[in-house]
Amino acid sequence: MKLAFQIAKRFLLASKRQTLVIVLGIAVGVSVQVFIGALISGLQTSLVNTTIGSRSQITISLEDEYISDYQNLVTLIDNSSDNIKVISPTLTSNGSLINGDASESILLRGFDFSTADEIYKFEEKFIPGSEFPNALNEVALGLNLRENLGIDIGDDVEFLSGIYGNQTFKVVGFFDFGVNEINNTWVITGLDTVQNIIDEGNVVSNIEMQLNEVFDAEEVTKLEIENEISDEFKITTWISENESLLSGLQGQSISSLMIQIFVIVSVVLGISSTLAITVLQKSKQLGILKAMGIQDGDASLIFLFEGMLLGVFGAILGILLGVGLLYAFTTFSGTDIPISINAGFLALSAGIAIAASMIAALSPAIKSSKLSVIEVIRNG
Amino acid sequence: MASILSLRKVCKTYGENTKNPTKVLFDVDLEFEESSFNAIIGQSGSGKSTLLNIVGSLDRPTTGDILFKNESLASLSKNDLAAFRNRSLGFIFQFHYLLPEFTALENVLMPYRISKQPITDEVLERANELLDIVGLGNFKNKLATNLSGGQQQRVAIARSLINNPAIVLADEPTGNLDSDTTEKVYELLREINQKFKTTYIIITHDRTVAEKTDRVIEIKDGRVYLDISK
User: Fold this and answer.
1) Environment class of A85 (CB within 10 Å of its CB; exposed 0-12, middle 13-18, buried 19+)
2) Partner residue facing B91 (CB), from A7, A292, A295
3) Across the interface, which of B59, B84, B113 has its CB nearest the CB of A374?
4) How far is it, in rounded angstroms, from Cα B213 to Cα B228?
5) Over chain B, what is the mean pLDDT?
6) Mean pLDDT, to the nearest integer, of A108-135?
7) CB contact under 8 A, A288 and B93
8) Which of A142, A178, A194, B202 has its CA 20 to 30 A from that of B128?
9) Is A7 in the B-facing interface, judged by CB distances under 8 Å?
10) Rounded Cα–Cα distance for residues A5 and A10 (Å)
């Protein structure tokens, strides 16, 4: 085994240029894999983040009814699954905000900010000078409402609801979600402000949560919650509401996988054919080794080791190249696509390259064990 | 003296399952004695290379048997035969066949390393001694490719001896060398034969070379035509 490894090493070092070309071939394959993989997974993470990163991923509600005794329900749900990152009750109502002649219909959302901020990241979205609307009848508004209603921080604004009557709010901040729909309509406040307006006691309309593994929402976490709570609750997940996003993500994943498979196939073919030539080039050496009594298995091992060594160095070089490409891409392309390089993915790419190289070396290895000593010796 | 290798009615046919099988060896019976120095001569196509391959267990006879120290080789598996070659036979070939990627010393040690035993100081010393015997003590760390033809063949001679084989088979060992070097190589083989009591079987087409041996076996048309001992 040690001998076979040493012979493999010497064979590779003896034809340095050929070895370098194969290593480069593998490296280019690996770097493409690393680059495409990191780019696609970065794109997906960013897409998922912008789409569902700042919103509820699973929402629980009752049909046409408020949820009373919600604290117990929150505890029950929180304990039902390990995947729940944060859980927060909300109470939502609607109405209009009026300032002088200006009027806008709005969604009044009451939050428990201690947990809701983890879902919506309000703090990051507040414009300078804003504060959390923690006190009763304090509100923060979507940024577009500032202009549409002509109000600013510190102003009072009138809330009008056909069912619940009027209430004066004090504006303590504005937030920018980067989404017009929210910036135009959301008015956030503490749970108690909304509870006070609708006058139904200590109730909420929804229980919202975010997950650690967002793709488990539909098939794992929803079922776990369903097992624990009563059937009358309606559970909606981001997955059921975003089928087109999901199929888009899936399409991306498949095309990335296809590219990676083709890259591996071409790497395997390249190594395999080059090593097959090496067997011919080294047939003299193999002949003499066999005459001297090397076992067929050890003769095959030489080529497996060659494949492995080529794979290892190709993978290392490929990862360096790939990371370099990613660096150049993020630095010079001017886009702000977040690239996600994780060690696991790099290790997987390297592992695949090494395994592929060894598989590629299999047929030359078998060929070498079948090589006839007499043929070699006779033909000089 | 005791017989070290016997051929019993060895026949070899190539292309047995084809329309035109070629019979190369016909009922060859031969005995080789321990520490003897033998030459096998014959025209090209006479079957002498086939005979050497069979004697060297690189090829199997179609019928007949080969006995090494009265043990038949017929029943050995491919891997057992490889182990047998490694242990008991040394090879010297016409085209030198060193591993060009390794140094002279590493080439000499190669048969020993193939036997999968750890390299000891003793073995290293022996390899160095063998290189000294063939006059290449100063070249041991040179890559095989950087040695001349004569030097390479002398390395091959040292290599054939590292595992203390009972028999060394040499196929036209001087076929590629000039006459001065040829002379030196034969003197060397002779010296080793006397010093280590190694049996030599040398294949050659050169009668002047053959005349320096103790016994000349001439093969003609696949049969033993002449067998003269001095």
Assistant:
1) middle
2) A292
3) B59
4) 10
5) 87
6) 92
7) yes
8) B202
9) yes
10) 9
pLDDT digits (tens, 9 = 90+) for A315-342: 999 999 999 988 888 888 777 777 777 7
- Cα dihedral angle (B163, B168, B169, B173), rounded to 10 degrees? 100
For every residue of A216-242, which 3-state class applies, written as one string? HHHHHHHHHHHHHCCCCEEEEEHHHHC
Give A44-85 pLDDT, tens digit per residue. 888 888 788 888 899 999 988 899 889 999 998 999 888 899
Output the pLDDT for position B96. 57
| Domain regions of chain A by residue span | 2-49+246-378, 64-231
Residue A378: which pLDDT band, with cuts at 50, 70 and 90? low
Which helix (H) or strand (E) segment is A275 a member of? helix A243-281
A296: which chain B residues are within 8 Å (Cβ-Cβ)? Answer: 78-79, 82
Write out chain B residues lying below 8 Å of A297, CB-based. 79
HEC states along chain B? CCEEEEEEEEEEEECCCCCCCEEEEEEEEEEEECCCEEEEECCCCCCHHHHHHHHCCCCCCCEEEEEECCEECCCCCHHHHHHHHHHHEEEECCCCCCCCCCEHHHHHHHHHHHCCCCCCHHHHHHHHHHHHHCCCHHHCCCEHHHCCHHHHHHHHHHHHHCCCCCEEEEECCCCCCCHHHHHHHHHHHHHHHHHHCCEEEEEECCHHHHCCCCEEEEEECCEEEEEEEC
Cβ separation B114–A291 shorter than 8 A: no
pLDDT for position A338: 74
pLDDT 10s digits, A178-214: 889 899 999 999 999 999 998 888 999 999 999 988 8
Q: What is the spatial distance between Cα B43 and Cα B55, in angstroms, rounded to a whole number?
A: 18
Domains, chain B, ranges and CATH? 36-52+78-229 (3.40.50.300)
- Please state, in angstroms and rounded to a whole number, the distance separating the CA atoms of residues B94 and B172: 5
Interhelix angle A296-332/A343-370, rounded to 10 degrees, is 150
HSE (side-chain half, CA atoms, 13 Å) at A148: 18
Q: What is the mean pLDDT of residues A216-224?
A: 86
Beta pairing partners, A332: none
Per cent of chain B over pLDDT 90 is 31
Gap between the Cα atoms of A210 and A161, Å rounded: 31
| A379: confidence class by pLDDT, cuts 50, 70, 90 | low
Closest residue of chain A to B159, computed from CA coordinates: A292
> How far is the CA of B179 from the CAs of A192, A248, B87, B150, in angstroms?
112, 80, 32, 11
| Closest CB from A291, A296, A380 relative to B85 | A291
Amino acid identity, residue A163?
I
Residues A297, A107: Cα–Cα separation, whole Å: 75
Work out the pLDDT band at A15, boundaries 50, 70, 90. confident
- What are B67-123's pLDDT values in tens digits? 998 888 888 888 899 999 999 999 888 775 788 899 999 999 999 999 888 889 999
> What is the percent of chain B with per-residue pLDDT over 70, rounded to a whole number?
99
CA distance A94 to A110: 11
